[in-house]
Amino acid sequence: MPRVVTSACKGKKHGDCVEVCPTECFYEIGDMLVINPDDCTDCGACESECPEKAIFPDDEADAQWVKFNAGADFGSLKHILSKSEITR
Prior knowledge:
The chain is α+β, with helices and mostly antiparallel strands. The chain has helices spanning 16-20, 45-49, 63-70; strands spanning 3-5, 26-29, 32-35, 55-57, 78-79.
């Protein structure tokens, strides 16, 4: 079960989650980040680092956010590998 980013990330994009992700599964979409569920190994490291408490296991998140993360066009989004790459 992958993690998903929810509405609490909108307009925040702290990036603490990105810094601890061992599989580099974060992407930037507009004013928030999303997780590529195909790359997420469900380690949970990102969830505990998020100051906004915006990241949840997919079975605990609202279905709209599970769908939003999974439905993102990762091929056209900016792959975020470090906090410094986030658009401010």
